Amino acid sequence: HPRLRLFDLPLDVIDLSDTLTLLGAWLADPARTPHTVVTLNPEIIVQSRGHPEFAQAVQDADLITADGVGIVYAAKQLRQQDVPRAPGFDIVKGLMERHGAGLRVFFLGAKPGVAEAAAQHAARDYGVGVAGIHHGYFGPEEDERVAQLVAASGANLLLTAMGAGRQEVFNQQWRGVLGVPVMIGCGGVVDVLAG
Ligand code: UDP
């Protein structure tokens, strides 16, 4: 798929179905090569401007999809490109529908109790395996401990929901320790799954 630049950030021209196929290939790779996914939205564009680490984490992500119509509209107006949407929620739901018990999901982020509820609902509705759960309120001094917890869990899908910026930087900075084939910074998705 082609990649374009929008407000100094990369954006992949890829729809939901092709995104799910690509992530499926990453999940199936026996080498378990770590990959990071960013679902680009206007908040990321604005917040990453004054935050070089955040901008770099987006720059270095393996896949950057258009989360919503704001990005689709900007790509059309500024780059004359038709970019399909592949929203974070649809990606996560699609992966769970396609892979079910083939997923071992680590739910990282949100307030204590929220990731637990998300995990329960995902297991009930899609039959996914739950590799681990951790809330999203810890300081940088605990990053390594949490990254090692995720690594030891054997997860093949990491949903990181710690707010825009923190979640993308965490996934990118610790990708080598995390070692999870598919890691998605997915903000409110965990809250939505929690219901
Ligand atoms: N969150 C978190 N740790 C933080 C900040 C936020 O786990 O330090 C969680 C928050 O509980 C929510 C999600 O991240 O589940 C998105 O938070 P918010 O909407 O405040 O962040 P945004 O993405 O809008 O910056």
UniProtKB/TrEMBL annotation:
GO MF terms held by the record: N-acetylglucosaminyldiphosphoundecaprenol N-acetyl-beta-D-mannosaminyltransferase activity
Keyword annotations: Glycosyltransferase, Transferase
EC number(s) from the headed UniProt entry: 2.4.1.187
TM helices/strands, residue ranges: none
Recorded superkingdom: Bacteria
Full protein name: N-acetylglucosaminyldiphosphoundecaprenol N-acetyl-beta-D-mannosaminyltransferase
Full-sequence range covered: 7 to 201 of 249
